[in-house]
């Protein structure tokens, strides 16, 4: 090997070692600092985005939503949504941010959640629901996605390792929001509407029953809501909520089982058990 190639090799190895060391330090840093126990799932989880960054991200995503959608001028409907949502939020396993509830003017039967505890419901879904228990079922399911950190994990995965690592290593709050702002509205909305896994949906359903029960709503509202959604999907237009929420029959079966065991799992509801469950 001549001198030039030796130097080249040495530099490559050195570069490799430095890169390897950085990766090792970075992964140790993440393991040590970013693995947090989540009471909603009962597992330690790998979260790279702090609560503060997640809230900033949520504000930025909200701006994208406000550009794309119309918020209706219906104070009574919004007040109802917020009243039910805040009652459920109080019993959520996740209390490190404030939950916000928004209504979107759209005929589709849909609801979704973004980082930072923001929950959105379409008027097309709200108008189909006939009781507070049914509205609570949808909101409790979405709060379940927040508490289980499904939403932030979805954004974390979509934003990619490189962006997240730069944010974590720089340790500067607010970078996340600027990066998100730099994304197009379409890119943000694609992440918002990318579906959750079947496992995440079941988990959000399970947590939805828990929160409805603990907030003294009738958790059977979730079964009623599934049936309303199913009936709404008979026509040519399958609601988006169903497209991203598959396995409806399986989910109804699982939710019915969760309702039967709610008293046993969570103890008597604070209101004395609305159903004697
Ligand atoms: Zn869901």
Written description of the protein model:
Helix content is 62%, strand content 8%. The chain is mainly α and 277 residues long. Strands 3-5-4 form a three-stranded mixed β-sheet. It is globular. It starts with a helix and ends in an 11-residue tail after the last helix. The N terminus is likely disordered. It binds zinc ion. The site of zinc ion has 6 residues, from helix 5 and helix 10.
Number of domains: 1
Unreliable segments of 5+ consecutive residues? 1-21
Describe the sheet with the most strands: 3 strands, mixed
How far apart the termini lie comes to: 79 Å
Contiguous helical run count: 14
Q: Report the bound ligands by name, code or SMILES.
A: zinc ion
Write the H/E string, N to C: HEEHHEEEHHHHHHHHHHH
Structural class: mainly alpha
Mean pLDDT: 80
Please state roughly what percent of the residues sit in beta strands, choosing from under 5%, 5-15%, 15-25%, 25-35%, 35-45% or over 45%. 5-15%
> What is the general shape?
globular
Helical content band? 55-70%
* Rg over alpha carbons: 22 Å
Total number of β-strand segments?
A: 5
Strand order of the largest sheet: 3-5-4
